[in-house]
Design goal:
By secondary structure, the chain is an all-alpha fold.
Length: about 230
């Protein structure tokens, strides 16, 4: 494979319209970390290590509730399971590369990068163009995410503690949830997971959250099959 700058800069340009959704999310992640008493070094360390905004906010919430370390780690893994599915799309593209190149590129995978790179037009292009386009998309996304969290840390440090920014974490997830409900099936899955989360909230070690995620995944897997049987 060879590097060509054209697809790289095209990927960077295609990512720019999506930055408007990344910036406020990063600001929330940075400001909430400060509100919860984390040091800037800890916040940025978590930002770079996880590179997953939803998982980072979940970790904040669980740490705030004094959840056990193993529960925090397990929950973060469950939230990020979707990346195992995403990675299958890029397996054939990255497999010829040496490990020293595959690992950084896999680390840079994000929802936005997947959405831009998995479209049929990109899949039909030569491998080297797809790879350099992905690099342009992914590096741009990573840079904006880190910069937005840094801005959130700077803003959060100036916000009085009694403002209690912690409440913005569930609001951020609610906004994400509403934007993803595009069909009746997804609405039912969201309701199943939400009801389970409320009913199982009293489980120790915040296991109710994990149980709700599993219930939502099970509903999404079983309901289409049941609806198909009912229509036959």
């Amino acid at each position: 494979m060879q590097f060509t700058s054209g697809p790289f800069w095209q990927g960077a340009r295609d990512m720019l319209p999506l930055v408007s959704g990344v910036l406020p999310f990063g600001l929330i992640a940075g400001a909430n970390g400060v509100a919860l008493g984390f040091s800037p070094e800890m916040i940025m360390g978590m930002t770079v290590l996880l590179y997953a905004g939803s998982a980072q906010l979940v970790a904040y919430q669980l740490i705030q509730e004094n959840a056990a370390f193993v529960i925090v780690v397990l929950t973060v893994l469950i939230v990020n399971l979707r990346f195992a599915i995403y990675s299958a799309t890029f397996a054939s593209l990255l497999s010829p590369l040496p490990k020293r190149a595959r690992f950084p590129l896999a680390y840079l995978l994000s929802d936005q990068a997947y959405g831009l790179c998995a479209v049929p037009d990109q899949q039909a292009k030569p491998a080297y163009e797809r790879l350099t386009y992905f690099m342009g998309v992914a590096i741009t996304m990573w840079a904006w995410w880190v910069l937005s969290v840094i801005a959130g840390v700077a803003v959060g440090a100036k916000i009085p503690p009694h403002w209690s920014l912690e409440f913005t974490i569930p609001l951020a997830f609610l906004a994400m949830l509403v934007s993803t409900i595009t069909s009746r099936l997804l609405l039912v899955v969201a309701l199943v997971a939400g009801v389970c989360a409320v009913l199982l909230k009293t489980l120790p070690y915040n296991l109710g959250f994990i149980a709700a995620v599993i219930a939502g995944v099970a509903a999404g897997w079983l309901l289409p099959a049941q609806l198909k049987k009912g229509s036959d």
